[in-house]
Amino acid sequence: MKLTAEEVKKIARLARLKLTDKEIEQYQSQLSEVLTYIKQLDEVKGTAGATRMTAATNVMSDDEVTNQPRTKELLAGAPLTEGDSIKVKAVFDE
5-43 maps to which CATH number? Predict the structure, then answer.
């Protein structure tokens, strides 16, 4: 897949890069080679949609509360409280 100079300029603009004409020509060639390689990878049988590098299916564990803090102990360390909440100074003027 051959990129045009305009496509390289657009990519450079999105990346906020200022490129000379020589650099545009150089990147046009290099990026085209990368895209060609990626296209080859897409054509390899059996890789379509491959997103994982391992065979692990579910490595997530269930959420369990194992050390629930006690409200009274937490509130005891706060300078100001109101009911079961920690009271703080107002941030915004009313």
Answer: 1.10.20
| Residue pointed to by tokens 């490595």 | 59
Three-state SS annotation for the chain: CCCCHHHHHHHHHHCCCCCCHHHHHHHHHHHHHHHHHHHHHHHCCCCCCCCCCCCCCCCCCCCCCCCCCCHHHHHHCCCCEECCEECCCCCCCC
Average pLDDT per block of 10 residues along the chain, 94 residues long: 92 95 94 91 68 68 80 88 89 76
**Predicted structure pTM score:** 0.46
Which region holds residue 26: left if phi is over 0, alpha if psi is between -120 and 50, else beta?
alpha
Q: Spell out the domain ranges in the chain.
A: 5-43
